[in-house]
Every structure is written in C-alpha cells, then in structure tokens.
Amino acid sequence: MSADDRLLDVRDVTVAYPGRHGRDGVRAVNGVSLHIAPGEVVGLVGESGCGKTSLGGAVMGMLPLAGGEISFQGERVDRENRTWMREYRRRVQMVFQDPMGALNPRLTAGAALEETLYVHRTQPGLETAPGRRARRQELMAQVGMDDAVMGARYPHELSGGQRQRIGIARALAVGPRLLVADEPVSALDVSVQVQILNLLKDISEQLGVACLFIAHDLAVVRYMCRRTYVMVGGAIVEEGLSDTLFAHPAHPYTATLIAAVPDVARGLAARSR
Length: 273
Ligand SMILES: Nc1ncnc2c1ncn2[C@@H]1O[C@H](COP(=O)(O)OP(=O)(O)OP(=O)(O)O)[C@@H](O)[C@H]1O
Ligand SMILES: [Mg+2]
Fold this sequence. Notes:
By secondary structure, the chain is an alpha/beta fold. Helix content is 41%, strand content 23%. It folds into two domains: 168 residues, Rossmann fold (3-Layer(aba) Sandwich); 80 residues, no CATH class. The strands form two sheets. It has a six-stranded mixed β-sheet with strand order 6-7-8-3-9-10, with helices on both faces.
C-alpha cells in the first residue's frame, strides 16, 4: 500500500500520562505505527490496560503525542491548528462503549440528531427544519430505528442497543470518513452485540466509512475486520489478516487471546459457518 492510499497513518506514536505526587508517569503507548485505508475496517485488540483507548484518544486528537506523528488524508494532525482540528473532528468520529455520556439527557433522540445536523450543516438543505427532519429520518433508517417512535424518546427511555444505534446515527450525521469505535458493544447484552456489530459492518460497507475497531476480544475483531493489530503493553506485537492471526498466531500473546474465547465469539463463529 502506498502512502497515498492511507486515510490514517499513525507513525511511531508514543502517548505518556504525566506522573503525579512525585510518581513516575505512565507510557501508555510506546512507538506504535498503524495505517487504515479509506473504507477499511481495522481491528485493534489487546488486554485491558494495554493502551488501546490511549491510542484511540491520540487518533482523535484528544491526547498530546509524546513522540511520533499522525496523518489523515496525507495531512499531519496538528492539535495547535484549531481550524484544521475543527474539520478533523468532523471527519473522525468516535463511537463510545456507553453512548449515554455523549447524549444530552434533555434532548429526545430525534432532537439530538437534528441539533447535530444543524451545528455541522455538512450538506445543503440542513439550514431548514424540514431539511433536517428529512435527513434525521434517513439517519434513523440507516441505523435500523423507527423514527416516529424512537425519535421521540429521551436517552434514558432507550435500551442499551437503541442508545448505541443513536450514538452511531449521531456520528454519521456529521459525515465522517473514519469511526473510532472503542469497545462499542462490550456494555451490551450478548444477543444485542451481534446486531450492533452487523450494523457497524453494514454501515462501513454501504457508506465507505473506515473504522478503527477497538476490542479486547480477538474473535469479535475477526468477525468485524479483515486486518487486525495486536497490542501488548503499549506496543503492537503482531499485525495481519485476522483469519491468519487466528489460524497461525505468531506471537504467544495472540495465542492466549484466541484461547480466551467468550460466549459472544462462539455465537459469531456459529453464524459465520
Ligand atoms: N488519564 C490517565 N492518567 C494516567 N494513566 C492513565 C490514564 N488513562 C490511562 N492510563 C494508563 O494507561 C495505560 C493504558 O490505558 P488504556 O485506557 O489506554 O488501556 P486500554 O487498552 O484501553 O484498556 P481497557 O481494555 O481496560 O479499556 C494503563 O496503564 C492505564 O492505567
Ligand atoms: Mg479502553
């Protein structure tokens, strides 16, 4: 793959948290490189505390880099350049583990979507209320929600799966090229997990939106992503096609991840057979 084919290019990135009260700081990410092509869904897998969320935060431009650099569509992510960052924050959207925190408790799902559409106005027609209403209905349909019913509900009146659908609709409302999905299904019931995974998969295929899919479960990542990075202790230890990683793990850690296959993964494996 040439550098021009890269939507996102993370080169030798280090993220460090400062120490407090005289204690040493934490190097959460240590010299990580990874890349994502336009429309590609790429997995990032590793055990709790290995640095996945920190790397995601660096990609989102939320955390400063202690080393290395990140480029998006060939341009360097520069946290100091506010105009550039505003556009970047539109192009790169986050899908959270628990979307509750990202949703305003005082707005119905439909009103929240319309507000996001109004604030960003990424396409003609969104200046008018009927235009926003039409786009909102389109987005709700895209995430498999009945706008007439669910659009009128407040976040606390939605199930976890429904809330995650709204979270995804909200991310899509601003026209992103990349989603950073940090454990997007781990807070959900197993049966709902599969639905949300399939939704994310369909969306990236239909809209050509790329995704950095973060999880601690290799089987879920394999189901979602053709290509996967395995992270241990802040570093990438293995990268490759998910099927190959699964069949012939090169790193002993990858092998232990495969051994620890939880229920949802068995369900997914049964489905793909
Ligand atoms: N704000 C912070 N201040 C200091 N240290 C932090 C901070 N956030 C994370 N860390 C540390 O950085 C390391 C990586 O944390 P991170 O949240 O990136 O891991 P993770 O792979 O996302 O884990 P999980 O699977 O549990 O979400 C951990 O050792 C963690 O304790
Ligand atoms: Mg995390």
